[in-house]
Amino acid sequence: MNLQGILAIYRYEMARTKRTVLQSVVSPVVSTSLYFVVFGSAIGSRIQEIDGVPYGAFIVPGLLMLTLMMQSLSNASFAIYFPKFIGTIFEMLSAPVSFYEIVIGYVGAAATKSLILGAIILLTAWCFVPLRIEYPVVMLLFLVLTAVTFSLFGFLIGIWADNFEKLQVIPLLVVTPMVFLGGSFYSIDMLPEFWQTVSLFNPVLYLISGFRWSFYGIADVNVWISLGAIALFLGLCLLATWWIFKTGYRIKK
Amino acid sequence: MFAPPQPHAKAAAALGLIARCKPPMCSVLTARRLQRPFVTDPIISIQGLTKTYASGFQALKGIDLDIREGEIFALLGPNGAGKTTLISIICGIVTASAGRVLVGGYDIVRDYRKTRAMIGLVPQELATDSFETPLATCRYSRGLFGRKPNPAHIEKTLKQLSLWDKRNGMIMALSGGMKRRLMIAKALSHEPRVLFLDEPTAGVDVELRKDMWALVEELRRDGVTIILTTHYIEEAEAMADRVGVINHGDLILVEEKAALMQKMGQKRMVLDLTEPLAAIPNRFTALGLELANEGRQLVYTYDTQAERTGITSLLSDLRDEGIRFRDLTTKQSSLEEIFVSLVHAGDVS
Ligand SMILES: Nc1ncnc2c1ncn2[C@@H]1O[C@H](COP(=O)(O)OP(=O)(O)O)[C@@H](O)[C@H]1O
Ligand SMILES: [Mg+2]
C-alpha cells in the first residue's frame, strides 16, 4: 500500500480547495444560506408547520443534503477530470499507486471537503432557523455516507467524461431534478397519491427523508430503508469502480 | 577512448565510462563503480516488446534492448518512430500488446510498484498545473512515488535546476524553459535510478539546449541512468554513451556512440566527369573511389571527422591523371538516408 501516495493526492486536493475557497466553500454556503433567510425568516413564518416543525427548519436537512450531493459530485468529478484535461495525469499513471489508492485519495479529499462544507452550512442554518438534532450519530452517519457515495459517483463521472459537457450533464440533468423532487421542500404526504408513488422511485427521497428523521424524528419512509438505500447506492458505485478497474476501462491507452 | 561494444566485456563498458570522465567526477563515479561488481545485470531489459494501438496501428514491432546501469542511452528516430510509445510502456502509461520489460530485475506489470518507484519520467509534452507552486508540485511528486518527505532533497533538486528562487511563485509565471526544468525536477524528486527524457530539447533554443546537455552530464555524475529520445543526431552525439536507432517501430541498431558517429559522419563527394571513365586508375584504389552513372560520375566517400579528408590531394591527383570534371557536389547522409541504408544493410546481411 502506497500510503505516501494516497496522502500526496489527498493533500494536493485539499490545497486546491484552499486556493479556490471562494468558489468551493464561500459560494455554496452563501447560496444555501439565502434559502434559510428567505424560507426561514421571510416567507417561512407564513407557511404552516409540517408535522410540528416550522417550515424554515423543515427544509434545512433537505437543503444541506442538496448542497452536499452537488458539491461532492462536482468536486470529485472535476478533480480527476482536470489532470486528464491538462495532461498532468501522466504522472499518476507512471507512479507506483494502484487504481484503488487513486480512488481513496481523490474520493477521500472530495468527501472531506463536502463534510467541512456541511458543517459550515449547519452552523449557518443555526443562525437563521430554530434547529434541533434528535439523533446526532445517525445524522453524522448520513452525512458521511452521502459525502463518500456521491464523491465516488462524481469520481466515476470524471473518469468517464472526455469533455466538459459530459462532466456537467449527469449532475445537472439527473441529480438536480431528483434532489428537488426528493422532498427537500415538502413532505410527500402533501402530494396527490399518484405522485407519492412516483416519488418512491426517486432514490434521493430516501436520503432526505432519513436525514430529516435524524433531526426531527419525522420521516416519509422508514429510516432503515433510508440507510439501506444509501448503502445500496454506495455498493453500486463500488461495484462500478471495481468493474472499471477490471475491464481496464481507464485513463490509459 | 570508448570501449568497443564487445558483449563479453561489460566491464570494458564500465571502464569506458570511467576513462571518459574528467577528473572531478571520476572520484564519485569510480567509488560507485568499485563498490559493485563490474558485471551487472542490465537496469532495464526489454524483450520482444510490441504495441498495437486500438486503431490497429502497430507502433512497436518486437523491440529487444538492454540498458546498462549508469549509462546515457539515446533513442534516435524520426517522428512517429515509436520512441514515446516505448517509453510510455516502460513507465506504465501505455500497456504493451506483447513482450515484457524488466526494470532492476522486476517485471513492470507484476511488480509495478517496485519498477515505477525506480523511474522518473519527463514527458514530451509540457504538462503542469498552472496554479500550483514549484515547491508544492515537487513535494506532491515525491509523495506520489511513495517516498517520505525530504525537504533537503527537494531543495537540492530545485537549486540544481535553478528554480529555487521561483519555488513559491505560481507555475503559470514560469517561462517555457523553466517549466521544462520543473518537469525534470518533479521527475527527480523521488530520487529515481532511471530517468527518461522524452525529447528534452524539442522546441528549445540553442542556449537552453546546451544547458540541458550540461545538466544531463551532471545527473550522470550522480549515477542516474538516463534514456533520452531525440531526432537530432548532434544531440545523441553530445550526450549519449550508446545510441539506438528506431524507425517504424523497429530498433534498427544499437551501438556505442563512437562507432555510430563514424558511420554517420561520412560524406560523399560526387564529381561529374567530362569524359566517361571505363575503369578507375590504379593509383586511386587505396581511396576506395567508385564509378557511378555508367562511368560518368566518380564518387569519393570520406570521413568528415578525420584529420585529413584527402580531398585536396585527390583533386590534384585527378588533374595529374588528366581526369577532368564539370561539376562537384558533396553530400552528408541525412538521418533518413542513414535509416534507409541501415535497413537495407540489415536486409543484405
Ligand atoms: N493513442 C494512439 N493511437 C493510435 N496511434 C498512436 C497513438 N499514439 C501514437 N500513435 C502512433 O504510433 C506511432 C508512434 O508514435 P510515437 O511513439 O509517439 O512516436 P515518436 O515518439 O517516435 O514520435 C505514430 O505513428 C503515432 O501516430
Ligand atoms: Mg515522441
Q: Biggest sheet of chain B, strands in spatial order?
A: 6-7-8-3-9-10
> What are the secondary-structure elements of chain B, in order, as H or E?
HHEEEHEEHEHHHEHEHEEHEEEHEH
Which two chains form the greatest contact, residue counts included?
A: A-B, 26 and 35 residues
Report the radius of gyration of chain A as a whole number of Å: 19 Å
The proportion of residues in beta strands of chain B is 15-25%
- In whole angstroms, the N-to-C terminal distance of chain A is 24 Å
Residue share in helix of chain B: 25-40%
Order of secondary-structure elements of chain A: HHHHHHHHHH
**So what's the oligomer here?**
heterodimer
Content of β-strand of chain A: under 5%
**Average pLDDT rating of chain B:** 82
Structure description:
The complex is a heterodimer of chains A (253) and B (349). Chain A is mainly α and 253 residues long. Chain A has one domain. Chain A is 77% helix and 0% strand. Chain A contains 10 helices and no strands. Chain A has helices spanning 3-19, 21-42, 55-86, 89-94, 99-128, 136-160, 164-180, 193-199, 203-216, 223-246. In chain A, 44% of the residues are buried. With 349 residues, chain B is of the alpha/beta class. Chain B folds into 2 domains: 42-261, P-loop containing nucleotide triphosphate hydrolases (Rossmann fold), CATH 3.40.50; 266-332, Alpha-Beta Plaits (2-Layer Sandwich). Chain B is built from 12 helices and 14 strands. In chain B, the strands form 3 sheets. A 6-stranded mixed sheet of chain B has the order 6-7-8-3-9-10, with helices on both faces. In chain B, α5 (134-144) crosses α6 and α5 (134-144) runs parallel beside α7 (176-188). Chain B is elongated, with a radius of gyration of 24 Å. The interface between A and B is medium-sized, with 26 and 35 residues. Residues 83-84, 124, 198-199 of chain B line the site of magnesium ion (MG).
